């Protein structure tokens, strides 16, 4: 069992907002607009981030791309280790993913296993033209050859540290925290 202690606040509400605005501009630039582009957030904190990015994209290009919600619970390679009854939040993708440029959004990129599961889930729904990855924090320690296309902040961490992204829609506040994990 581990106990988590807050070590430092790495990003506040303004820094998160600036990062999402920068990511949104990079999405427009890389894709030369928003034609055939959709935004999909990975449950949980990727969903409000995806909605915020879509809102900023809408203000930049006068068109808000569709937003989907992806639950990867049953695609995880550690499903048997989670619990006998894992919590499923549900997938809601009310559009066809075939031939779409998908911007996949999550809060923290660590080992790459969550992103692998998300890509597998998306391919079960169809054949996108491309999948691009937007992440608030890349903390390193990859176990799979996955990298983000858009990153809010790179934060090299040790194995005893963790990153916690808090968003007002889920946590009541916006901040990114570096934590120490100490064995009890």
Topology:
Elements: E1 2-11, H1 13-31, E2 37-42, H2 46-61, E3 67-70, H3 79-82, E4 101-109, H4 113-125, E5 130-138, E6 150-154, E7 161-166, H5 168-171, E8 175-183
Parallel strand pairs: 2-3, 2-4, 4-5, 5-6
Antiparallel strand pairs: 1-8, 7-8
The main pleated sheet reads as: 5 strands, parallel
* Strand-residue proportion: 25-35%
CATH class, named Alpha Beta
* Total domain count: 1
Radius of gyration: 16 Å
Indicate the low-confidence ranges by residue numbers.
79-83
Q: Any guess at the CATH architecture?
A: 3-Layer(aba) Sandwich
Q: What value does the average pLDDT take?
A: 93
Textual characterization of the structure:
With 184 residues, the protein is an alpha/beta fold. The chain is built from 5 helices and 8 strands. It has one domain: Rossmann fold. 30% of the residues lie in helices and 32% in strands. The chain has helices at residues 13-31, 46-61, 79-82, 113-125, 168-171, and strands at 2-11, 37-42, 67-70, 101-109, 130-138, 150-154, 161-166, 175-183. Helix 1 (13-31) packs across helix 2. The chain has a 5-stranded parallel beta sheet with strand order 3-2-4-5-6.
Please sum up the structure shown.
The protein has five helices and eight strands.
Notable characteristics:
single chain, 184 residues, alpha/beta, Rossmann fold, 5-stranded parallel sheet, 8 strands, globular
């Amino acid at each position: 069992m581990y106990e988590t202690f807050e070590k430092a606040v790495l990003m506040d509400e303004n820094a998160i907002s600036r990062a999402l605005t920068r990511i949104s501009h990079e999405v427009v630039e890389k894709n030369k607009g928003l034609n055939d582009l959709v935004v999909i957030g990975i449950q949980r904190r990727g969903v409000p981030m995806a909605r915020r990015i879509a809102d900023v994209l809408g203000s930049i290009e006068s068109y808000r791309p569709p937003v989907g919600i992806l639950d990867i619970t049953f695609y995880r390679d550690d499903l048997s280790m989670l619990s006998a009854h894992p919590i499923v939040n549900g997938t809601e993708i009310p559009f066809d993913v075939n031939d779409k440029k998908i911007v996949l959004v999550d809060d923290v990129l660590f080992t790459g296993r969550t992103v692998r599961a998300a890509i597998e889930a998306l391919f079960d729904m169809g054949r996108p033209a491309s999948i691009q990855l937007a992440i608030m924090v890349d903390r390193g320690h990859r176990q799979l050859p996955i990298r983000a296309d858009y990153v809010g902040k790179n934060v090299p961490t040790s194995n005893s540290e963790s990153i916690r992204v808090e968003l007002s829609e889920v946590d009541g506040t916006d901040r990114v925290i570096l934590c120490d994990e100490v064995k009890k």
